[in-house]
Amino acid sequence: MGKISINIATGSLQKSEMIVGIDLGTTNSLVAIIHPESKKATALREHNSSSLVPSVIHFDETGNPTVGEDAKNFLITEPQNTILSAKRLMGKSYRDLSEHADFFT
What we know:
Helix content is 11%, strand content 25%. The chain contains three helices and seven strands; from the N terminus they run E-E-E-E-E-E-H-H-E-H. The longest helix has 4 residues, at 69-72.
């Protein structure tokens, strides 16, 4: 996605781009766009037709990501390569977490 120019005086977009909003939740996340034709917010849906996607990501041995419901399966089989609750760490420094460093390595 390219840059979006906004006219500060009017609030209007200066070129046609897709606007995306992300609600990053601790448990679930949601992605929505402003539909280019209807100009209304539209939630994107995962393959199972749910707009809520579990906030879980798994990386396989080559670094390829799996997200959402499919990634939850790896919490048991490959917890060392699966991330959840990352939102709880946002804004924290290493110093904030240093007493729990062994948990994150």
